[in-house]
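pls ignore typos typing on phone
NDP + seq
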Amino acid sequence: MQKNNVIEENLFIGGLSTKGHSGNRSVINSPFDNQPLASVISADENDVRNAVAAASEAFRGNSPWRKLSSRNRCEVLLRLSALIRKHAEDLARLESTNVGKPLREARDEVQLAADCFQYYAGVTDKVGGQTIPGAAGGLNMTFREPIGVCVLIVPWNFPIAITSWKTAPALAMGNTIVVKPASQTPLTALRLAKLGVEAGIPPGVLNVVTGPGSLVGDALVRHPLVRKISFTGSTEVGSSIMKLAADDIKRVTLELGGKSANIIFSDADPSRAVDSALWSALGNAGQDCCSRSRLLVQKTIYKRFLEDLKDKLRQIRIGDPLEEKTELGPLVTSSQRERVSEYVKIGRDEGATLVCGGDVPTRREFAAGWFMNPALFADVEPNMRIAQEEIFGPVITAIPFETEEEAVEIANNSTYGLSGSVWTNDIGRALRVVRAVQTGVISVNSGHSVHLEAPFGGFKRSGMGRELGLAVLDHYTEWKSVYINMG
Ligand code: NDP
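k done
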C-alpha cells in the first residue's frame, strides 16, 4: 500500500475548514496495516451548535441559497458532479484506503456519487407542485417547500456513495445540511464539502461535523433547529433516533440493517447464480446492509451448488485494497472483525457446518490488518442466530428448501426486509416470488440492489422512508397547499 503522510482534516462549518471549539483530535488507523492514516477533529456540542447555526442562517429567506433560482441550483450541482468526476481517482483511492475496500469497488462508488449530483441537478427545475380543481369557485395549488436544516448521518461502509445520495436530493430541493460521517471514515465527506465550495455552494449550506455518534450525532438529533434527520446505520441507533425525533416531530428517514435472502431455484443459470451468490454476499467484505447473506438453494441442486461456491470462494483474491487485482480487502476495524469472528463461533456452536473460511489469513503481509477468510456455512436452520442476525461481514449461510412456498416462508422469516434476489428462468415464478417476499428491494437474476433511478429502502426493521429515485424528494420537501377563492 502506498505510504502517505498522515492526513490532517478539520471540521467544515460555514464554508470554512475549522479546528472547532475544543480542537481535540482523534487518529484514524488504516484497516490494511493499522498504521495512522488521518487525524480528524473530535467535535463537541459547541461545534454542533455552530454547524446548525450556520445551516440555519443559510436557510433564511433572503440568503444567497434561498434566492438562487432552481436553474442556478441545477448548475451548482452539475458543477459538483463534474468536480467529483475530475477528482474521481483521488477520491476512490482515499475511500479505498480509509474503508479498506478494493479500489475497483471504490471507483464504482465515486462514479455513483457523481451520477447522484447529476441526476438530482436535473430535478431542481422539473419537479414542482400541482394545480387541482377544487370546489366550485375555487382552486387548489401546491408547492414543494424545502424542510430546512437536515442532518445526514452516514455509516462507514459506503461513505461517499451514501453521503452523496443523501446530500444531492436534500440540496436539490433547497434544504441546508449538516453531515455527520462515521468516525472511522469521514475523509471523503470532508473532501466533498470542499469541492462543494468550488462548485459554488454558498457558505453554511453544506457543513460536515466529525466526532463520536454518541455525542455529536446525538446533539445534532436533539437540536431544536434541525427539522429532518436522514440516518443510515444500525437498527438500534435508528430506533433511538426515531424516539428522540418524536419530541419535536422532526422528519426521519431510516435505512437500517438487513438479512436478505438470495433464492436459487433449480432452473437458474448455474454459473451466473454461483457468481452472484458469492459477490452479492461478499462485496465490500459483506459489510453491506443489502448483503444477500442468506443463501436459499433448492434441494435438488443444493450439494452441487455449494461445491461450486466453495471452489470459487477459495479462489478469491484477498489483499491490499489499492492493488488492482484485489477482490476482498480487510474489514473496517478490529472490532468489526471481532464481531464477525464471534458469529462464526456462534454458527459452529449452533450446529451449522463450516464448509470453509471464517479464520484469519496466515500470510505475513496480512498480519497487521483486519483481514478475514470468507466463511461458508451449510446445513443452516432458518431460526439459527447466524440466519437471523445481521453479521455484517464475509459470511454466507446456506439453507436448503424444497418448494417455492417454503422458499418464500424462509425468506420472510426475518425481522428485516431490505433486499434480496430470486434466480429462476420461470417468469411466472419470478413474479410470484418478488410479490410474496416482504422486502423493499428485490432483483430477478441479478444481485444488485441500488439503482440511482429507483426507490431504495426497507420493510419491517430495515427502516422507513426511501432514498434515491424521485421517491426521495418527498422526504426532503413539505407540501404546501394553497386555496384560491376565485369568487
Ligand atoms: P451505528 O449505527 O452505530 O453507526 C452509524 C452512524 O451513526 C455513524 O455515523 C455513527 O457515528 C452514528 N451514530 C452512532 N451512535 C449515534 C447516536 N446515538 N446518535 C446519532 N448518531 C449516532 O453502526 P456501527 O458503526 O456501530 O455498526 C454496527 C452495526 O450496525 C453493523 O455491524 C451493522 O450490522 C449495522 N450497520 C448497518 C449499516 C447499513 O448500511 N444499514 C451501516 C453501518 C452499520 P460513529 O461512527 O461516530 O459512531
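The mean pLDDT is 96. The longest strand covers residues 138-146. more later
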